[in-house]
Amino acid sequence: MSKKVEEIGNQYTSERNRKRKRQQKKMKIVRRRVTVFGGLLLAIIVILSIMLVFQKHSNDQMAVERKQKEEQFQKKQDEEIALKEELNNLNDKDYIEKVARDDYYLSNKGEVIFKLPDKDDKSSKSKSSDDNSK
């Protein structure tokens, strides 16, 4: 049972139809504006998210680089301390005398230096004497 409804052509209905059409046009405009502004907002959020990810990645790389630089700095500081200690030792007369005696076999007047064989020297001498005896 379908009913066919006809509109009455009076001033009230025509005014109401115009208002409804204006309202529909306004709603279309509002929907378009909401869509455009929503799209812009979404685009801004996406761009900011991408920037955030790149910044995080960059910060992580910089943190790794900073840690490496700090380790290098610490090594350089340790090396500097060792060099200063060596410099102080080289300015010490007793240390220079000890190095001269131990490494270069220098002696004072009237001293005689005897070099004792090491454990490695004994084993090599015994091997060479075994080779000579054959």
Automatic annotation (TrEMBL):
Residue stretches in coiled coil: 59-93
Lineage: Bacteria, Bacillati, Bacillota, Bacilli, Bacillales
Residue ranges, annotated region (Disordered): 1-25
Name listed for the protein in its UniProt record: Septum formation initiator family protein
Gene Ontology biological process terms from the UniProt entry: cell division
Domain of life: Bacteria
Keywords: Coiled coil, Membrane, Transmembrane, Transmembrane helix
Transmembrane residue ranges: 34-54
